[in-house]
Design a protein that fits this description.
Jelly Rolls, DNA Excision Repair, Uvrb, Chain A, 2 domains, 9-stranded antiparallel sheet, 5-stranded antiparallel sheet, 16 strands, globular, binds nickel (II) ion
Length: 226
């Protein structure tokens, strides 16, 4: 399931993030690339574990924790600390699949990447190119969102970033391990949760809604790995 989550960060938070990013020291993006992807990756990244990266990463995670849409769609178990990148001067990232397992630097924690996320920090009119193109079940999706908006998609998808031919594209990207590893099962739970929430607005907590909510949680009980 590919889902856009609008306004994860407010415009003020975006400005704050950009200020930190523009003053930070950057490194070659290939430090986190696997063998195949390193051959096609051409961008800059904030060093993992740097002060700027940690500070902004915490801001992103705190914002996501407030998002019901994100929580419902992702059912996160472990989230890899957000990373930050910059594409400019023709920088691009060719077609690839993200590594299946990520170790959180300096810890024994391993995260299986079930869901990949990109949070846009530059407005679409600040750069040319830089579209995130994701091969979805129903064809290829071109994603270029407003600053502060995020897309999440299954990490099993082939994806790429087209060259940024003008301006600068700043973004945060990261992965998470979901309690529900199957994208299909996660999508079913998400649809059910959305339907229950919308019914609740119309009918309050009728016995049927209580029962459906029970079914939702019992499905998670059947399928969750923690
Ligand atoms: Ni990727």
């Amino acid at each position: 399931m590919l889902l856009k989550i609008p306004e994860v960060l407010s415009k003020e938070q975006v400005q704050q993030a950009k200020k930190v990013l523009l003053e930070a020291d950057w490194t070659d993006g290939n430090v986190t690339a696997g063998y195949q992807s390193s051959k096609t990756k051409n961008n800059l990244q904030l060093p993992e574990g740097s002060k700027a990266s940690n500070q902004l990463g915490d801001m992103v995670l705190a914002a996501l924790a407030q998002s019901n849409l994100f929580m419902s769609a992702a059912l996160p178990l472990k989230i890899f600390p957000p990373l930050f990148n910059c594409y400019q001067g023709g920088g691009a990232f060719g077609v690839h699949v993200d590594n299946a397992i990520r170790q959180v630097p300096g810890t024994p924690v391993k995260v299986r990447t079930d869901i990949s996320m990109t949070l846009f920090l530059s407005e679409p009119d600040e750069y040319e190119g830089g579209e995130l193109i994701i091969e979805d079940t129903y064809g290829s999706q071109t994603i270029k969102l407003a600053a502060g908006d995020m897309v999440l998609y299954p990490s099993t998808s082939l994806h790429r970033v087209t060259p940024v031919t003008k301006g600068r594209r700043l973004a945060s990207f990261f992965w998470l391990q979901s309690m529900i590893s199957s994208d299909e099962k996660r999508a079913l739970l998400f649809d059910m949760d959305m339907a229950i929430q919308s019914l609740r607005e119309k009918l309050d907590d009728s016995p049927e809604i209580v029962q459906l909510t029970g079914v939702y949680h019992n499905m998670i009980r059947q399928w969750a790995q923690t």
